[in-house]
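Late entry, evening session. Most of the bench is empty. Finally got around to the prediction I had been postponing all week. Sequence below, unchanged from the version circulated by S.P.
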Amino acid sequence: MSSLHCGNKIWVLIVIVLSINCLLSVSAATFGCTTGQSDDYRNVALQINRQYRTLLAQGKAPNKCGQLPTAKNYYEINWDCGLETSAKVQADNCAMAYSSTPGVGEILFMASAASAKDAVKNGYMKLVNTPVTNGADPDTYSNPNNDWNRIVNYRALYVGCASTLCSGMYKTVCHYDKPAYSNQNLYERGDNCVTDADCTTIIESTCKNGLCIAPPKPDETINTQCPLNPSMNDYARDQLVKWHNYYRALVIKGNEPAAGGRKAPKGKNMYKIKYSCTIEQNAQNYANNCPYPTHSAPGTRTGWGENMAYMSGGTIGENMGKSVGLYYSELLTPGMADLVTNVVSFPGDMGAGHYTQVVWGKTYEIGCGGKLCGTYWHLVCQYNVAGNYNGTTVYEVPITGGNGGCTTDADCTTQAADTCSVSDGLCNRA
């Protein structure tokens, strides 16, 4: 234990010490990796990452003065054999120099140790305590904290490590699936999760001990839904449908924050989104041109609406899911002018045009395509029916009070045979 003077206060800092016996008792996981590292080694590295993230999320990780701020939407880390393999290649060269492995966050350290397991344990415990010496701010990438930035980076969900004995010292390298950049925050300040509903970065996440738990890593090689298009995969399609319906179900309840401290109005007769391979192929044909930011000519999409995004890094599935959140965020910034009658008015509402298409009540199916052009994904989604008709209601607003959304089939009146999806308040189009 040590004490430091911070302004007029004396903060007592307890440097993190993690018991190796405790770490080994947490899990008996079998990882299935083939680099020659032991599962005990992997378990130690993984559990240090997990326990430190838990402390950080709960506001118990020490900083130079007090503790680091609590973290919102902060996720548990998992092990990845592919990252372990790339880390092993870098560790085996025995040079004390960072690699140029694209798309990963890399930490490395070299030290004497009795075993590879001790090397990774001791190295990590030293790195997670660097804020005690240097101070840290989750809003700012700090060069003095170097590898610590990559350890706490909230974008990273997977890690893989390897240690190699080099002239009597172990060189340890760990690769994370997402790099940390100097112009990005390390995590979002806010209350750690308490319920599953607090975890909104990845759909179908759960909460445990203040950390969000992502569902199992998807297999983006599966392409059975629309097999004629090899550029997309079933995970990407699933993300698109789930995120569109997630936001549509939220907004129709009337509790979503909007620009100017307002709320989105309650709604009714909003359709639940389905996926269309026909629309996807049309969207993919346009995405193949690397077109962002130019929209396709209306005549080439037979009256369908269109949203586009431009994103770097990641997979097409990850980015398709994230793009829906970007579109939806326009409800808050810059927002719509009229949230009483919910009528869209152009050109004033152009800045919210992606949002209004996502929640356009009469839209019932989508199809999307994407292409990696250089280092950027060009993503195109098309919607049937099209939204964003000037002077038209985005979605119907109930005349009377009560809950937004449907509760029985009788609440869905756009077509005679429409039914209600009671769990989310959206209507199924007949």
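Two things to note before I forget:
The first strand starts at residue 2 and ends at 6.
The longest helix spans residues 39-57.
Will write this up properly tomorrow.
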